[in-house]
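All the exercises in this workshop are built on plain-text protein records. The record below serves as our worked example for the rest of this section.
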Amino acid sequence: MLTGKPFDLEIITPEGLEFEGRVESVSVPGAMGPFQVLYNHAPVISELEVGVIKFNDSRDNETIYATSGGFVQVLSNKVSIIVETAEAASSIDVQRALEAKKRAEEEMSRRDRLGQEMARAALERAVNRLRVAVRTQDVQL
């Protein structure tokens, strides 16, 4: 169980504020590797990769989001995460993610180099969503 001090977390997407609250830890998929933020963390601005945002509240309840990347700022015990997408693990539509994965795999074989890179990015996002769903939902792939 966490015994640290709480700090403020906000997760913002183009659609608006996805989450705002007090947490005791947050882990993010930093561009140089995943890292965890606790109370009194040094100031940081980092790019985020496709991956998992995970945070725990003072009751040690864990919340997980799949993200497609963005940025994080840590400053004065406030963490601001600005991402293109943040999808709560419990709300991931596994069938939709499987279909997106299949489409991306098909597109990779048909496109030019730029199209292949776009398809590869779409595939990475779909696979990430599936990994998160498997971790948190009763899903068998």
About this structure: The domain at 93-136 is CATH 1.20.5 (Single alpha-helices involved in coiled-coils or other helix-helix interfaces). The two ends are 31 Å apart (CA to CA).
